[in-house]
Amino acid sequence: MAVVKPFRGLRYDCNVAGKIETLTCPPYDIISEEQRLGYLEANQYNVVRLELPKGQNAYEAAGKTLAEWKESGLLKRDEKPAIYIYEIEFEVKGEKNRVKGFICRVKLEEFSKGVVLPHEETLSKAKTDRFNLMRATNCNFSQVYSLYMDEEGKTRARIDRLSAGAPDVEMADEAGLIHRLWVVTDEAETQAVCGDFADRKLYIADGHHRYETALNYRNYLKERGIVNESADYIMMMLVDMGHEGLTVFPTHRMVRRLYKFIPEKLLVRCGQYFDVAEFEGVEKIEGALKERYLKGDKAFALYCGGKKWHLLTLKSMEVMVELLPYMSEASRGLDVTVLHTLVLENILGIDKESMANQTNLTYTRDINEALSGVDSGEYQCAFILNPTRVTEIRDVAKAGEKMPQKSTYFYPKLITGLVMNELSD
């Protein structure tokens, strides 16, 4: 099953580079240009120069920068292989929470082998970008976020024991999240943790593009006869699927540019598949959806502007079985599958290609952005969803299937720059 190893991480020497909180950044795909410039203004050595290079010959510049930083001692490789226990302390709606796992190397496996399992579709543009960066730098700057099953809590107990003392690194980011890192080099301890995974599968939570890119890079080297055993591995953060700190946000859908969009006709047609209930006051949307979520109903809210909105609750799963007989029960039962199949495709006529290209559909995890976008006239309507359950993600992956793009948003995102994985021994 999964092959998990310690590795000699590449880390900042803060005595040379500056404070760690000025050197890290979020994952590349959620950084705006304004943010990128802000990170560089705070510290010219911020990892964003490596993770999200810009300008002419950007990838080659990132490779050159990495080499210079290693040469000058800004970045140093740990002397001993380690696992890096990583904890994030965060707050959601006034409630404090923590999630903890560990960063390691994981052997790359084709998805067909059923060892590392994806759950979401990916975009080719993002994979091309990441491939070009990996080819120029031969390094992982950020981790793939994956989950594992450990019903006995064996690995969790080891991780908690090994991180009982003060962390080697602790910092607060600009959003107020606390990040802690413990470096564990004891060989017996690291081998015990890694050995727990001999009979386990891994489920990618976040970082599908990075994982597929690493597969492509490994194959690229092999095709050219380049021997690099480290490129057979990728840096991952592994978290127990049963961890109480795991938090998944929903990603809402906003519809635009549809010819002759008439809300009243949409509601009438939705009535064929859904119980349609009208409410007044958008502040009630989240509470109503949560009630359906706890009942296990397949439901989402439709907002077309004004004071009113509608709750759509699926009448029966039979129609999903008829339309998607080739899909597993796990995939058919997802709220996002129900929405895409019955409403976006069947009723509104938005095909999969248009969804992938975001021609008539775009996404946000911010409910207020979705509602205000409709009020401003930028969008014709918005569908507000409940979050996907972690167990649903697992079951879809186990079935060898993938959810539509933007089905999940794991929060918080792992920070980039605490530890990096140079693909050499």
Overview of the structural elements:
Helix 4 packs parallel to helix 5 and helix 5 crosses helix 8 (208-223). 35% of the residues lie in helices and 24% in strands. The strands form 5 sheets. Strands 1, 4, 5, 6, 8, 9, 10, 11 and 12 form a 9-stranded mixed beta sheet that branches. It has a 6-stranded antiparallel beta sheet with strand order 15-17-16-19-14-18, sandwiched between helices. Strands 2-3 form a two-stranded antiparallel ribbon. By secondary structure, the protein is an alpha+beta fold. It has helices spanning 14-17, 33-42, 48-51, 58-72, 124-137, 154-162, 187-195, 208-223, 263-270, 285-295, 318-323, 329-332, 335-347, 352-357, 367-375, 390-398; strands spanning 4-5, 10-12, 75-77, 83-92, 95-107, 116-117, 139-140, 144-148, 169-172, 178-184, 202-206, 233-240, 247-249, 252-255, 274-280, 299-303, 308-314, 361-364, 381-384, 409-411, 421-422. It starts with a strand and ends with a strand. It is globular, with a radius of gyration of 23 Å. It has 2 domains: 4-247 and 411-422, Conserved hypothetical protein from pyrococcus furiosus pfu- 392566-001, ParB domain (Alpha-Beta Complex); 251-386, Conserved hypothetical protein from pyrococcus furiosus pfu- 392566-001, domain 2, CATH 3.30.1760.
